[in-house]
Write a structure and sequence with these properties.
6-stranded parallel sheet, alpha/beta, two-stranded antiparallel sheet
């Protein structure tokens, strides 16, 4: 196990009706003027936004609203939020929604605390030193942005989708009421669950040894997601199933599973360019790209993939490690397919002829490779995307 420092300052407020405590949480952190940031009309249609605004009004907390966050959040709305926040002297941002809303809120917070262009951080021209604090009311179990140090934004003029990872980006609190996820469409529920699994597997597929504890955390949580997801797809009002998915999402990306081990993240970087180019749901793109990546790197550490096949999918140990490793990867694809996720390029609208562009975009600003398990150069990235494209012919 590698040396590590782990600090997760996000306060979790979990359970039914916990959104009613939002004003109390903001007051405790010294917030006096709130930007309420949200996404589509669902927050309005469900009545959640009105309930939250009523809580803020009752507590005497001035607020301004900014909606319109899209999946794969855009820099244009971030700039709008920064301008609005400066005009209204905002000192706290409340994200009401999922990972896209929270990521957009984080970027606005950075921009409000910075005199230059917030994209300087994403283009590695500057390092963030301060931010306006962010809290969240979560409406989907997926990205884990509610307690992570990450924020992903798409630059519209280039359609580059870039991630930022700094500790100051961790939200100050996350309100987690599983009932707020009841009305999610099945596709979004499943896509979110794939994102949870991918966050864990990006950490799990590692050459680091002596990490049995976090190995078991990773394996157990993946098994939990695979157990609970079919339940909530069958019964959207299964509170315990929704609760288990919601807390798994919150922990999957706050790095408790990744401490002391080298992590990869190549699948995420490849998928970011797919969703940036085709506007595909992040989890759906990961359902295609993660198995494609696995098939191109598994021979680097057969024991790791055999362990995955045995412990997660119950495969019998075998001296034929190559076959066992590939069987685990195929079981993963089969699970994605069983819950309605795409497993091929064609299903997400991706095109083989765009592979050179996808490779170029993936490598932009990276120094020539992505990932650590097997560093992927242009040739290896091309193979990964081609494997995903070849799934079309199954």
């Amino acid at each position: 196990m590698e040396n590590f420092i782990y600090h997760s300052p996000t306060k979790f407020i979990f359970g039914k009706d916990t959104e009613c405590t939002v004003a109390e949480q903001i007051h405790a952190l010294g917030g006096t003027r709130v930007l309420v940031h949200y996404g589509s009309a669902s927050a309005v249609r469900s009545g959640l936004l009105d309930r939250i605004l009523s809580c803020l009004d009752a507590a005497g907390l001035p607020h301004i609203e900014l909606g319109g966050v899209k999946p794969n959040p855009r820099d244009s709305l971030v700039y709008k939020g920064i301008a609005l926040g400066r005009k209204e002297n905002i000192d706290f941002i409340l994200a009401v929604g999922g990972g896209s809303v929270i990521d957009s809120s984080k970027a606005i917070g950075l921009g409000l605390a910075y005199e230059g262009d917030f994209w300087d951080f994403y283009s590695q021209k500057a390092v963030p030193k301060a931010t306006i604090p962010v809290g969240s009311v979560l409406t989907i179990a997926a990205a884990g942005s509610e307690s992570s140090n990450a924020a992903v934004i798409t630059q519209e003029k280039t359609m580059l989708k870039r991630a930022l990872n700094y500790e100051i980006l961790r939200p100050r609190f996350a309100i987690l009421n599983p009932e707020l996820t009841y009305t999610l469409p099945p596709y979004q529920t499943a896509s979110g669950a794939v994102d949870i699994m991918a966050h864990i597997l990006e950490r799990y597929i590692s050459d680091t040894t002596g990490v049995e504890f976090t190995d078991r955390l990773c394996e157990g949580t993946v098994l939990t997601v695979m157990s609970e997801l079919p339940k909530v797809l069958k019964n959207p009002f299964d509170y315990d199933g929704r609760a288990n998915l919601m807390f798994a999402a919150a922990l999957s990306h706050n790095n408790i599973f990744g401490v002391g081990r080298v992590q990869d993240w190549a699948s995420h970087k490849m998928e970011h360019e797919l969703s940036g180019l085709y506007d595909v749901a992040h989890g759906a793109g990961l359902a295609v790209m993660m198995p494609a990546w696995m098939l191109n790197v598994y021979q680097h550490n057969l024991d790791r993939f055999c362990q995955f096949a045995v412990r997660v999918f119950g495969k019998s140990p075998s001296e034929d490690k190559d076959t066992l490793a590939k069987a685990g990867i195929e079981e993963l694809r089969s699970f994605f397919r069983s819950v309605g996720m795409p497993v091929s390029f064609r299903e997400i609208g991706a095109k083989r002829e765009d592979i050179p562009l996808l490779v170029e975009k993936t490598l932009t600003g990276t120094g020539g490779t992505v990932g650590s398990f097997v560093p992927l150069n242009a040739a290896l990235l091309t193979k990964c995307f081609e494997t995903a494209a070849n799934f079309d012919h199954e």
